[in-house]
Design brief:
Shape: elongated
Largest sheet: none
Radius of gyration: 17 Å
Number of helices: 5
Strand content: under 5%
Distance between the termini: 37 Å
Order of helices and strands: HHHHH
Helix content: over 70%
Mean pLDDT: 84
């Protein structure tokens, strides 16, 4: 259960960061409470979908494909329930897809760098223990 909460919380954090970055670069937009709740819930779901990377059932490319497809579906649902679907479908579908893929790559880079940093810290602790 703790792992589920952790993944959900990480999803909310990354989704909130992504949303704020979009607001920053889009020139701003009016944000309703319904949209914020939608963002929290669906970002958490994307975090839960990320648990697929812990399974040994599929190889990495299949996991990545499943994850990105599920992420696109969840983001589409978030757009619908957040009240942004009409503007997306009528005017911005290409920019939406490009934005989602750019954010997906940026989040992957951030998570990779965090993983590298954590690995270096753990290796330093191990080396310190071995030297004693």
């Amino acid at each position: 259960m703790a792992k589920v909460i952790k993944y959900f919380a990480i999803g909310v954090l990354l989704g909130s960061f992504s949303f704020l970055a979009i607001l920053l670069f889009s020139g701003g937009m009016l944000v309703q409470p319904q949209a914020v709740l939608s963002l929290f819930f669906f970002s958490g779901l994307i975090g839960l979908v990320s648990m697929i990377f812990e399974t040994e059932r599929f190889n990495f490319p299949i996991k990545l494909l499943i994850h990105i497809l599920m992420t696109l579906i969840i983001v589409g649902l978030m757009m619908y329930f957040g009240g942004w679907w009409h503007a997306l479908v009528t005017e911005h579908i290409i920019s939406f897809l490009i934005t989602v893929f750019i954010i997906y790559i940026v989040v992957w880079v951030m998570l990779y760098l965090a993983d590298v940093t954590n690995t270096k810290k753990m290796n330093a602790v191990i080396q310190k223990r071995k030297s004693k």
